């Protein structure tokens, strides 16, 4: 069950990243690189928890709407 939850979070975050960056390869690159707003963790690794995935979604929405991340 836990693996399904993680997979679901990853797919949701990946879809949001693709919408924000308007390019799947750019989105995948962003998800795989350490992010200072996440304490230098990768956005993808943060999706292991619901809280981490929520933090990634907040950053993506900030990027989409002109915030800093």
Task: Give a concise summary.
The chain has helices at residues 2-21, 24-32, 43-46, 50-64.
The quaternary state of the protein chains shown equals: single chain
Q: How widely separated are the two ends?
A: 32 Å
Helical stretch tally:
4
The shape is: globular
What structural class do the secondary elements suggest? mainly alpha
Strand residues, percent: under 5%
Main sheet: strands, sense, barrel: none
Low-confidence stretches: none
Tally the structural domains: 1
Would you list the SSEs in sequence order as H and E? HHHH
Number of strands: 0
Mean pLDDT across residues: 93
What Rg, in angstroms, do the CA atoms define? 11 Å
Helical proportion, percent range: 55-70%
Task: List the topology elements.
Blueprint (H helix, E strand, L loop, with lengths): L1 H20 L2 H9 L10 H4 L3 H15 L5
Helix pairs in contact: 1-2, 1-4
